Amino acid sequence: MKNFLVCFLIALSQMGFAQKKYHLDYALEFEIKINTHKIKNQKIKKDSTRFYIVNAKENNFILFINEDGGKNYNLFFSDKEGLFVNSSVDKNLFSKAETINNECESVRRSSNPYKFQVDNYEFINLSDTLVNNTSYYHYTIKTNRGLKYQKRKKIVSIHYIVDKNSPDFSPFFIEPTCYEEWKKERNIPNGKPFIIYHENYKGEITFKMQLENAVKIDRYFTVPDECDYTKI
Asked: Half-sphere exposure of residue 80, counting CA atoms within 13 Å on the CB side?
């Protein structure tokens, strides 16, 4: 997996048709740490590495690469404005294409069922955080509901430690509700993600992902025009 960010992307099929084209210009490698002692009765994978492919300036879409342990990579692409793509790619072919072309069979309509929850959340800018003598922006998104509700629903606050030297890098969000809240408020600074962690109602960190590598790339991901559900 060390050469993962150097060897990149596979073309599937369907060439020459009208397509929606997404430009991917950054590959991000994160180290994941999960505190299983603080998350009970849940099936959680052990500590691992995750790879996300993004566009630094357009944060409505994100590509997650998952290794299934076999000969394939599983691709999970999400456009938070209305579609989701799930496809599988042969690892031996993965490095040979500059574009991932998809068929409509891999595309489905997607919406955020918790979009209404944005009224229950808010972004809060915190004091800068110092890591290894480097200052980073620090902000969090948390619910404005009471402590009893947070405890009953096992709601966490999500903290973002963000690079100050990348002002053109739009905020990085995996969760669609965070993206919807950002669209509404737009009150947090830009910057490449460095550390993202979850904190429960007790103030305990239950999940942490830290950026290990960021590689500039120039790749594309396409969806056929007839199943571009973001237009509906």
From this structure: 21
